[in-house]
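User: Structure tokens for this complex, please. No commentary.
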Amino acid sequence: MTPTDETREPGATVAMDADAIRKAIRRIAHEIIEQNPDLSGVVIAGIPTRGVEVARRIAEHIEQVEGIRPEMGIVDVSMHRDDLATRGRLTAVEKTHLPFDLDGRTLVLVDDVLYTGRSCRAAMDAVASFGRPARIQLAVLVDRGHRELPIRPDFVGRNVPTEQSEKIRVRFENIDGVPDSVSVIKP
Amino acid sequence: MTKPAWTRKDLLALDQLSAEEINMLLDTAKAFKGVGERTLKKVPALRGKTLVNFFIEPSTRTRASFEIAAMRLSADVVNIAASASSLQKGETLKDTARNLESLLTDIIVIRHSSAGAAQFLAERLKASVINAGDGSHEHPTQGLLDVFTMREHFGSLQGLKVAVVGDILFSRVARSNVHALVKLGAEVTLVGPTTLVPKDLESLGVRVTHRVDDVIETTDVINLLRIQHERQRKEYFPSLGEYTALFGLTKARAARLKSDCLVMHPGPINRGVEIDSDVADGAHSVILEQVTNGLAVRMAVLYLCAGGAGV
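Assistant:
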């Protein structure tokens, strides 16, 4: 895989280009279909900002393949984090939007990068204040390791081994105005 | 694409905030309003933090609103009223506050009869200090909830015609409103008797008129302030009856408002003085919405000022 000129920069290694991201999201969509024979019971919720975009793309693929577009929601985890006080300055919070009955449904939580697992834990906490899904599954575009909680994703686009000092940067054309990419940034 | 970060430990006056900071508070308040619509109306954002409601002046609505806001954020709340505090025994404000801090409180919400009281504490304490009204200076969370309510109805405040009517001179609500409205691009007109609305207020970037009929048919929002008997040491107008006749939002005046005009009031209402009872409960009125929005705004303020790593 060759990095495009737009994403080439010192200290950054491209782990996934636009094509790899598209294929990974398509595979996740197929795995969700396979694991959930009754798709009408499945709802999808993204974690802002880029988890929402991954969720939207997954839902689009599911619709193309199965003709059903799962209902979509947004779970903002900032007010549910247990590490607020160590995360430095805060930014504006987005509204959590789950415009459907969760009870008895399968909720697929979607994020761009899985790291410590604390966002996912906070998302499950947020979801619990809306209702009680029958099950919650987790889909991520990138799993970079270094979990601090017993959380395991059900659907993974790609495992990208990292050092803790490194950062993962996800860029989407329709949000960031540069071609889709996942890069590992050296400190 | 990096979101702007909040950098203040205190909320003292809207005069000090940029339009970006005000919008950040309003955006966050929108998210927190959603918490009130959940089955479980509580989030853990301030778990383990202690908030002291330190009210040297009486208040029911604001104190209760801060208390519920803090509880919904999982903070522990202690209420201290003036009559119960050692201020009665001659302790200075600074000593009382330092004692509160020694009890490891993280947030102090203060209402005080002196302008600058919150600022005084904020400069001396590590805790977050939230101004819940200081004399005739500012009442920032009231100003925020007012613009939040307007933004919810009209989308944007740019070019919005807002009339603030009544006791402007003594009103911290008016001052906070004016600062927020001007920064967000609204066209503000202050209305009231010459004694309570001096012409030099125009230096704040607003219009001043002494005739409510000048604005009644064109304004998008009419915010009626309470006549504050307790703050007036002398008479600023001949009688309440005359005030109502000249400036009150009577049924006859309300009939001339634009169909989508919002009638607002920070409460407590003097029914029959600044607003007719039927109008306060009528179709234009968003007075109770303001109370609900106050909760969301205060949650946002507490979250941003006290939720992070400190500044």
